[in-house]
Amino acid sequence: MKRFIVFLRLAVVLTTLMFGTWYLSATFLPEGVLRSFFSSRFSAVVGEFTFWRVFLANFLAGFLGVQFMNLFRVGKWPGGLYVLPVFWIIYGLLLGTNSFVFAGAPVPFSISVLWTRTGFSELFAYTLGYEASRDWALWRQQGLWRVSRLDGKNWNPRIQDLAYWGAGLILLLVAVAREVS
To answer: How many domains, the chain?
Structure first.
């Protein structure tokens, strides 16, 4: 139960970060200011808007990317903790500037974004993946580019880890299915 509370606390902090970024970017940045950047990234990474392309882009870059970073310990924290907030901030920027690739009317600032937009579901799936793998560190960072193996540490996933990982994967599949339909 303690692990679930820690996870919920992280999800609340990240959601608050997203809403703060959304509010600030909607207030201070012009609409569509980042659309050309995100459109070119979409073309390079996804290309065609199909279920499998969108799923693979989210699965490889976000879901597994955060987990890969968790294999590294930076200070006393898993490496994914340094990457995960970046995804939440980017989504807040997208919402606030309406810089989506397929932009419609700006999304009104509302808590309903939590259940009406697929981006939040994707981010929550990434966060579930982070939680699944936060104790999987095998290496520690020493300096900017050097890493060393953690003494006596082996990759040993537990049932709880697999439950978070499976929940994240299912949520990601559902979010992508909603997004492309």
So the answer is: 1
